Amino acid sequence: MDGIPFLRFFCMKGTGMEITLLQHTPDPERTVALAAKLCYSSASISQLDDRLSQSDIAGFLEKIMSLGHQSVLEHISFTFGIDGISRACSHQLVRHRLASYSQQSQRYVTFKGDDFPMVIPESISCSSKRNELFSKAVKAAADAYRGLVEDGVPAEDARFVLPNAAETKIIVTMNARELLHFFELRCCERAQWEIRAVAIEMLRLVKPHAPVVFSSAGPGCVGGGCPEGAMTCGRIKEVREKFGTLR
């Protein structure tokens, strides 16, 4: 890999990808409990708020979650900063439409010199032969991009030669109901490895702030049978143990 300084190797342990919980609704579980209680009470909102104790909140939320009354989860949201993922991953992420996204633009950001990080899958980095094939391809793309820009081609047109491996950064905001759906799909063992790593880290970050809401969060098999049918990974017990102890 000598002579190719713009490559960054993605590591499942997080040396390439960085995810930060930037902000969230203050006291999220209190907000959810208040919204839920409002549906069943004639009291004013301020009266309900005054009556809520921490024990009331936990117990009431457990009941609400068991009944599947999830519309109240839309009142709380979480905002993440996601850095160092590939364009291939971000294209999967933005398919979750009930969310807000702000992504680094390849139209307005022109990459110069060796500032051209790429994400390389472990299935490629584990082999010198695959590394060489991959490196030649991305180096050719990077060289072509730089050559086009230097020749006066706008970045918005030069970017057409860039591969899915190109690194990107994105800010994502989702409400808790959509996050549960996101985790159900993307924490699954059958999800693509990069977005699965993103989803698991996002879940790890939100759990301490809304432990009841996210107590059973994870792939579909955590709270029930495997939704993948014949395509199951066959490791339901291990998956449930993994997400049951996720911290």
Looking at the structure, the CATH topology of the domain at 22-80 and 170-244 is Gyrase A, domain 2
Secondary structure tally: strands: 6
Second-tier CATH architecture of the domain at 22-80 and 170-244: 2-Layer Sandwich
Helix proportion range: 40-55%
Strand order in the sheet with the most strands: 2-3-6-4
Q: Please mark out the parts with pLDDT under 50 across 5 or more consecutive residues, or reply none.
A: 1-15
Count of individual helical segments:
10
Globally, the shape reads elongated
State the CATH class of the domain at 22-80 and 170-244. Answer: Alpha Beta
Question: Gap between N and C termini, in Å?
Answer: 36 Å
Largest sheet: 4 strands, antiparallel
Structural class: alpha+beta
Order of helices and strands: EEHHHEHEEHHHEHHH
Radius of gyration: 22 Å
Mean pLDDT: 90
Proportion of residues in extended strands = 5-15%
Structure commentary:
With 247 residues, this protein is of the alpha+beta class. The chain has a domain at 22-80 and 170-244: Gyrase A, domain 2, CATH 3.30.1360. It is 42% helix and 15% strand. It is built from ten helices and six strands. The strands form two sheets. Strands 2-3-6-4 form a four-stranded antiparallel β-sheet. The protein has a two-stranded parallel ribbon with strand order 1-5. The chain is elongated and about 70 Å long. Residues 1-15 have low confidence and may be disordered.
List the helices and strands and how they pair.
Elements: E1 7-9, E2 18-24, H1 28-38, H2 45-51, H3 54-67, E3 77-86, H4 87-93, E4 99-103, E5 118-120, H5 122-125, H6 128-150, H7 155-158, E6 167-175, H8 176-186, H9 193-206, H10 236-244
Helix pairs in contact: 1-3, 8-9
